[in-house]
Amino acid sequence: MFQIILTHDAETALRRLATDKSLAKRHKAVSKSLRYLMENPRHPSLQTHKFTSLSGPRGEEIFEAYAEQHAPAAYRIFWHYGPSRGEITVIAIVPHP
Question: Could you list the residue range(s) of the whole structural domain that residue 53 is in?
């Protein structure tokens, strides 16, 4: 099990999903994906893969995980391992362009 740490931006995005009733379905999908990420970052439904266009604040590899699929503006979770062992930092929760 990993501990999930949310950056300010990720926390703000999650709070927005939680408070906007029109985004309830998306909030449920993102919450489920965060649980999967905590349990197993390589869970098949997350389709986790490296995101080579970005790096973390200390040069960490960034990964992209799917919260939704086959939906317009499907949500993605961007994250990296750390800062400590057993931790995952979620840097962004955003709709796919």
Answer: 3-95
